[in-house]
Design a protein that fits this description.
This protein is of the alpha+beta class and 140 residues long. Helices cover 23% and strands 39% of the residues. Helix 1 packs antiparallel against helix 2. The longest helix is centred in the N-terminal third of the chain and has 17 residues.
Amino acid sequence: MDKAQVDRWLRAYVDAWKASDRDLIGELFAEDVEYRYHPYDDPVTGRDAVVGSWLGEGQDPGAWTPDEKGTFDATYRAVAVDGDVAVATGSSSYSAEPGGPVRTVFDNCFVMRFDAAGRCREFTEWYVQRPGTVEPPSVR
């Protein structure tokens, strides 16, 4: 893998997230992928389990229900690639309603390992909410 390939994969990751499309999500991951929403989680293991988790069908720690279309966006880019291992950083932003103002931003770091076909076989996410990006509780 090189940075351009990882950046293409990251764009496909965002596209699949926005589409909530089972096939697009599945194309990203190796059959035996291990996916962690947090570095301390036991992995969600296997492509079908990851797809289900993304679509809110699983009970995996850290997973949550799919976001409403039009209420989120994200941009990530590779910052380091060493053979089949890549590190990416970026941010994801959320609004309360489609097209509404951004209310919450998370800064993200992904550590990924890819197979020879360019599918992710290990994925671990770290994220932190950016200070000052949540509406006051009375506005929610």
